[in-house]
Amino acid sequence: VQLQASGGGLVQAGGSLRLSCVASGRTFDTYVWGWFRQAPGMEREFVAQIKWNSGAIYYGDFVKGRFTISRDNTKNTVYLHMNSLKPEDTAVYFCAVGPGDYLYWGQGTLVTVSS
Fold first, then answer.
1. Span 6-22, average pLDDT
2. What are the tens digits of pLDDT across the range 55-74?
3. Using CB atoms within 10 A as the burial measure, which of 25, 27, 63, 115 is most buried?
């Protein structure tokens, strides 16, 4: 199984980015997909989760309507749409997938939000 995350970059505060995570190597119909982030010197933090078959979605408390997780079944891809970005959103963002526990992780994509 391979996960490829992309879409990170440098954006000004208030801006938007869309992260993508493409998975290959097996089917993920019953799996859970998640986005996490880790800022320098900080612990990894849960951002959002989507269940592939039901579409049930959960967000970390800090998201407060700014981020949206979605999926494209035809492309085996999960997205994280991030709006109203803040400097404190600066982190490496990781996607992960698993049957409940997150077994597989992508390499991360860096998001930098300037003030």
1. 97
2. 899 999 999 899 999 999 88
3. 63
